[in-house]
């Protein structure tokens, strides 16, 4: 683990392998450990950067400064710190929002864009988004983070054979600082690209699970609004596809990187 000073905070990151750069961005309430099944696989052929986004893991947890735009600026400053000019940004869930914002605001840094069970407009998801914002804020304020972590982990990994994955994710989530989690969540739900998505020209892969929170049609709709994007669907997978179907995910990402 290494630390970099960016945007008046410290980011914790890991840097593995050599070659073209893969930047892996984790989901809300998690850490760079989301990518434990990807780093060993891809670091054989690529330089892999994983990072704890602000408010998460071993990175700084500021009192008030949160939001997708700030997280994106943190990541850009980290790349500058490492003298990295081009990356393939792979963003899972909240990390997908950061990757989308990179494509919209800092496209010169991107060779490819990979969006995993995420979307371009968390502030415009219709009833799904409204219900999630209302119910999760109420849950956090009345029951706290630990019961929420248990519920999220069960929803992501409900199968009997997934108990170990479930327990690991629950522990990771409940270890969050409450204020950091809360502010990361509400600022994420206020973020969206809007019409900027039409201007993204970066070659893009969107990965969707067949049992994700949002349906495949949700991903198809925004892929159709993009200039250079394609969709792949992973079967028998829920939200945490990089964790619950790592072999399939890794193969799909490898094919995309190899232009297959």
TrEMBL record:
Domain AB hydrolase-1: from-to ranges: 21-166
Protein name: Pimeloyl-ACP methyl ester carboxylesterase
